[in-house]
Here is the input.
Amino acid sequence: MVNFFVYDSHKKLLNIIVSKYLRMLIGNNISKSFGGLHALKNVDFEVKKGEIRGLIGPNGAGKTTLFNVISGIYHSDSGTLKFDGVDISRLPPHKICKLGIGRTFQIVQPFNELTVFKNVMIGIMFGRDKSVSRTEANEKAMKILDFLELRGKRDHLAGSLIFAEKKRLELARALATDPKVLLLDEIASGLNPTETLQAMELIKRLRSERGITVFWVEHVMKAVMGVADCVVVIHHGEKIAEGKPSDISKNKNVIEAYLGEKKIL
Here is the structure.
């Protein structure tokens, strides 16, 4: 009896330790208001190490606001955010970035008057927690450009790229900061069907080849539902559902929130 009790106790302790380790990014009761507008209301979420977690909801649901809170652009009015066990609730964006949270933006924001290569170099030289030599930075930049098939555009001005290439450059700039968790804000938005499929494969490769955990906001439902391990749904700033894509697609509350957009789910 004693041996079984000790074994069971050790097993429970191990499960607690493993569970805590896997939960890389945790938000508890996150709320944010702008005047009388409650953009987020007591939102709980977690992102586990190695997963691709989707975040969906109708326009104005609060998705990008949540990303802005996580990345430090806004501070929540209440609630706590923890990343790898560190409370980041009140940290500024540059410190959060250097801890290992990178992000892209729905509206791409490259330095248009600089080359593609220099855009990536800026992230490597200034977006990481450790300094690197110029030689090492050059090598890392070229590896990122190769990964995103942008090597041939390295000397082009960022402002001259077509839309799909700018999307990839936005991702390249985020990868340059060497993130553990990557917040992707509508990376498939505005892409044609072929480009969307390429973006889906790219997100899978972020995990399989680079070991990056992904938290992904997306309006292209077929994309996120086809890639994500788990999906969180928010509506009017509140979480209304969470689960596997197959379950979310049949959730009554989710279908009602999208006002009949059942077909795209």
Notes: Residues 112-172 form one domain. The longest strand covers residues 23-34. Strands lie at 23-34, 37-48, 52-56, 78-83, 86-87, 101-103, 181-185, 213-217, 230-235, 238-243.
